[in-house]
Fold this sequence. Notes:
8 helices, 5-stranded parallel sheet, 239 residues
Amino acid sequence: MIVTIHQPEHLPWLGFFDKASQADVLVLLDDVQFRKNYFQNRNRILSANGPVWLTVPVFSKGKGDQLINEVRINNDGNPLWGEKCWKSMSQCLGKASFFPDHREFFNSLYQTRWELLGDLNATVIRYLVSALGIDAELVSASELAVTGERSERLVNICAKLGATTYLSGVSGKEYLDLAMFGRKGIEVRFQEFYHPIYKQLYNPFVACLSVVDLLFNYGPDSLNVIGGIGVEKMNQVFL
């Protein structure tokens, strides 16, 4: 029983789904502090002129301690954000071979008036997990009602789900209390993700984009590409 835990990003990158593909359960860690100007409310896709950001505007001023599942989308100050995101996605990736397969979902997604960032991101992640053919069950940490800080919290999540193995990102080597997992009989494994070099619509190749760049170009073969099957891989482990 392999559990992996990750904060719910917006349109996550390939490494996020590499972890999910190796797990039985993917826990969306939505009840930890929101990180401003990071990937929780934005991500990049590739245009003819280089990477561009798709950004969800949120209320953050004076809310430095808010949790991810508390973050509200600023629909009043930026009422056309969804339209802007959809326009950018269509213009940048509309010519990709498998864009038509996903047009209806993303068009509807960005036309919907979302109130909470966590709801939007969970919806996107669930769709992408399914579209990539990943079998992991998705669970929100806020639904588990576990306590603890740092490693203790992760251990308690794993224990509640009956995990025998916790799959961590490679950066977990620097901060995880492995003995704490061991006392609960939970093995810790660390992801080693070597980013694939795949054919994009534009050159030169850009790594660490949203997974939609890959999905729209490779469709059903995307998960194989994430695993490095049939493509060259970069020679460094990505955090």
